[in-house]
Every structure is written in C-alpha cells, then in structure tokens.
Amino acid sequence: MQRTLIHVGPGQALGFCLAITLFELLTYMASDLVMPAMLTITSEFKADTRHVPYAFNLYLIGGVCLQWLIGPLSDRFGRRRILLSGCALFGIACAAAFFSNSIETFNLLRLLQGMGLGFIVAVSYPALQEVFREADAVRLMALLGNVALLSPLLGPLLGSLLLEWISWRTLFLGLGLAAAVAWLGLYACMPETIGVVRNDGQQQAPVASNARQTGQRYLALLANGRFLQASIALGLMSLPLIAWIGLSPLLLMQLSGLSSREYALWQIPVFCAVIAGNLILDRLLVRHSLPQVIRFALWPFCLGLIALIGTAVSSAALPVLIASLSLYAIGLGMSNAALYRLALFASDDSKGLVSATIGMISIATMGAGGSLIAAIGGASSLDNFALWAALGGLLSLPLVRRFLRPSSSLTPALATRKDIH
C-alpha cells in the first residue's frame, strides 16, 4: 500500500484493517446482539428492569476505566502488545458471561467487556493514524464507523433471530470465540508503529514517563481549551444515538408492546442514516477541509434534533420520531470521524495519551448523559426521550462553534487541502 506512513505490504495492511474491524465490531456486538434478551436476563436473575439501561451504561463506563492507563502504556511499550492484551481481556470477559449466575456478576462482566472498547479508542485508532496518511486515515475511521454501525443496525435483529434457537449465554460464548479469531489476526498482521522509522524518515520514539509526568501531561491536555471543547462535543453529539441504543428496548418492547423483531427492525433506519452520513463524508473529503465538512454536517444534525423536539411537543407517532433521529444521524455520521481527527491533533502530545483522553471524556459524557436522561424520565415515554435526547445533543453546538472559530489556528496538515486529495 503506497500511502502508508510506515513500511507494510498491501497484504499486511489489509489484514491489519480487517483484524481491527473485527475487534471493533465485536466490542459493539457484545452490547447490541444481546439487547433483545435484556428483559429475559433480568427476569432470569429476578432483577429489576432498571438494570437494562444500567448494564448498557456500565459497558460505556468500562470503556473509560482503563483508557487513562492504556494510552500512555501504548506510547511507551508499543501499540501492538497493548492491543493484543486488550483483545484477550475482552474475549475472556465475553466467554465468562456464559457462567454468570447473578445480575451483579453479569454487570461486572459488562464493565470488563466495555474495557475492550477502551483499547479500540486508545490504541487502535492512534495506530491507524500512524500507519496511514491523513486522508486515508480519516476514510478508514469513517469505514470503521460504518462497520461498527452494523452492530446496532443488525445486532438487535440478528440477536432476536438467534435467541429463537440458542440462549443468551451461548451468544456471549460465541463472541468470546470470535474475539480469539480477532486476536490471531492482530498477532499476524498488526505492525508496530512506536520506535519504527516511517517512510518520510521520521520516527515516533517510545515515550517513557513516570506517574507524575503522565499526570502533568493529562493536566496540560485538560488545560487545552480547544482540545477539551472537541472532546466534550464528540460525546454530546453522539448522546442522542447512545441514549436511543440504551433505552429503546424499554421504550419499544416494554412500553409500546413491540416484539423483539419489531424492535430490531425500527433500528434499521437510524443506523442506515449514520452509514449514509459516513459515505457522504468520504465524498466531501475530496474537495473540502475537515472543518468545512463538519459545518456541512451541522445542517442535518441540527434539523434532525429540532424535529425531534417537535415530535416530543406534538406527541407524534413512532415513525416521525425515527425519521427525526435518522436525519440527525446523517449529520452525526458526516462529522464524527472528522471531528475526532481534529481533536487528536489539537495537541502535540503523544497520540496514545491524547486518544485515551478523547475517549475518556467523550465516553464519560455519553455514559453520564445517558444515565441522566434515563433518571429524569427518558425511559418513561417516547416524548420524554425525544425531548431530553435532543436537548443533550444540541448542547454540543456552542462547543463545536468555538472549536471551529477561524481564530483558532489549525496545524498545517489539517488546515490545507493538499493532504486531502
């Protein structure tokens, strides 16, 4: 592959992308595939149905728990061995769910499984940025987003079909076995990007720092206003979608009386819309800079959320709510990978630590926001969900506006278009 930044062959580069894609897909499937069974799980463990959104939010919190450590460790010891460790942890936690015998054990395993998401954010994303050039890296991030979205798109439907034949425990065992395949792919194909001389003659040396130095670097990042704005905005922009994933089993199956298959079918328009947004992003990258792409994305993003508020006020039917969510989702798909890239390079610090901080801030924002929406009545009716989810998403607009101000200079690699072509 001629457009890589380090010396890897086309076959190895393809294998690396496929292995990361499988691992990322599994980290999402571990949540979405089992969502149609969550009411069965709480019933089997004789637990309250409030554990349905709690288990999902625990999964998100798990994605935050280790990122503060994973990022610096990958800067020091290399991305490859850290990502292999994360894939192994994820696979073992999934397989262990087969043997869970209480809701507390199940929730603990959800937390451990969510840590796999942290390895994806803090290790694999920086590795992609270091292996591939800017335009290719953004396209690959968008493509990974599309593949990951196959999970909430097909996961509930596939889960509802599989659950007619096998138990939810067997589903988790299958995820553990699939994670073993992803581990083998990463072991065979993932290149090391730390300490390797790149094609342009530059080298990203290992970053050795003690706990005090690492803490100082994190504090310096948190003092970077532009970086903080972009990271929080990433979480708030995804909040309506995350809240929908966590609460839709209660809203559609328990409150609206839909079957698990009907619930799964209503997910399709929303996640197809995010995929459409990612495809539009790929087309826009040919002629437009990343900040311009984000500004274009804000139109469907804002119109969809405003329409969502309208459905809450007018108590519109479910199809109208889904249409509003889908319009918002197009804008989210257009902007997410571009905003992530800009956030990653808003600081000159090592990308493992920077990516970990982005992940911790954005995922914590989504997890806390989703829990708050559930606590203030978002799970009690479709109208309440639509209102609070839309307001949460709109809170990102001032942050995005400040981040994209012309006075906030971008690095040359991001400000010019020549690297996009």
UniProtKB/TrEMBL annotation:
Q: Which Pfam families does the record cross-reference, listed alphabetically?
A: MFS_1 (PF07690)
Q: Which residues form the Major facilitator superfamily (MFS) profile domain?
A: 16-410
The annotated topology with respect to the bilayer is:
Multi-pass membrane protein
> Where mainly found?
membrane
Recorded superkingdom: Bacteria
Q: Which GO terms describe its molecular function?
A: transmembrane transporter activity
> Is Transport a UniProt keyword of this protein?
yes
Location relative to the cell: Cell membrane
Keywords of the record, alphabetical order, are: Cell membrane, Membrane, Transmembrane, Transmembrane helix, Transport
Q: Where are the transmembrane segments?
A: 12-31, 51-70, 82-99, 111-128, 140-162, 168-189, 227-251, 263-281, 293-314, 320-340, 352-379, 385-404
SUPFAM superfamilies this protein is in?
MFS general substrate transporter
Report the GO terms under cellular component. plasma membrane
Q: What is this protein called?
A: Major Facilitator Superfamily
